[in-house]
TrEMBL record:
It comes from the Bacteria. Residues 16-182 form the GmrSD restriction endonucleases N-terminal domain. Residues 190-414 form the DUF7834 domain. This is DUF262 domain-containing protein. InterPro entries: DUF7834, GmrSD_N. It comes from Sutcliffiella horikoshii.
Amino acid sequence: MSKINFSVKSISDVLQIESLKIPEYQRPYKWERRHIRNLFYDIREAIDRNISEYRIGSIILHNKDNENIDVVDGQQRLISISLFMYCVGEDNLPDGASNLLNGSYVGISRLHAKENYDEWRFLCGLISKEEVDVISNFMMNHCKVSVIEMPSECLSEAFQLFDSQNNRGKALEPHDLLKAYHLRAIKDESEQTVENWEKYVDDKELKLSDLFDKHLFRIRRWINGDTGLYRKRYGSELRFTERFIGDFKGVNLQNASYPYLQLYKELLENDIALPNSICMPIINGNAFFQFIEFSYEHFKNNFHENSIVEGFLSDEIKEIVNSKKSKYARNINLFTNLLATFIDRFGADQLDRETCEKVFVWAFYPRTAAKAIYNTTLANYAASGTFQKKKCQKLFQELAVSATPREFVARIDTDMLGNLTAADIINKLQEEVKR
């Protein structure tokens, strides 16, 4: 096995690497103008203080196939500095910098690259040509990075290191860490399976962070009777953070022999596609990315514009659940998540108006009985079965033990909801608006 090399290199040395490139699976270039300004003024300050060596973090390189050197971590800084060099008119742009700027950039990456190039031009226009030359020389020869060079067979180790690297770049969100974690379980060149991942990150209708935070994290906790709340010094928060990424790390089918995984193992051994469900056991590697693609499409198709669910809603209910009013947001989340779990369990073809209206009553009942709904209210109502210190139904768990759609609907105890109908809830919400 080849060695992992650790060294300290100048930016010039790194950008001279002829085969340097950004791999397709990398997340987009997202540095903003403020990051460029911070780097610019930090370097000017270092020059003023006569600092001979200025460290700007670390980068991880992967020798993919002895022909391409992939930037696993550090692309934000390297592309930004390459933009500076291009801006100041470097006659002979180093091969590595040229490769980075000539890569395949689409959408948000191209937008940020253009904006940051304009920012460099603006900042350089504030100072003299001589000072620009000083900054250029300092950036190339006195700015140093810690370089970790991984041999071709160490892609998984490269991603392990990526998990903890966050120097000067955008803070890694929990889904970034999960992406890196599950890439480690993918063999050979099958990292291609995650190319769709980034298109979900900034989707205008359903961002990947919201898919985890507002839906998957909550549903999987609530269906097991856990609120998902984390107690802090002042109150509690309901949020998917790095603290909870263990919920989605899952197991490796190759190494696990637990009875509950037997079906999945047999399907995999017989080259049969694994069934997907938003409440399924999390399985490492490709299966995880397939799970996310399934979950994304599940919510997008069933709950967004021209969705399946809308066909079963009255105009009044549709107006409420599509409302952008923040006071309804938590109740809408309850409504969406419970129906999403119903469809996941029984199928969209088992959905009907009665089910939608009963779920609507359950989800919005707290709104009619309390002046304000907080995340703690939401979580305790959904998972702990308590509201205003009174017992209420834990419908996520009732759904989990229902064998048929009819059984679930029959389990909804309308007495615990004041025997209110959907029309009653709508009237109460409308009266609230008038007051």
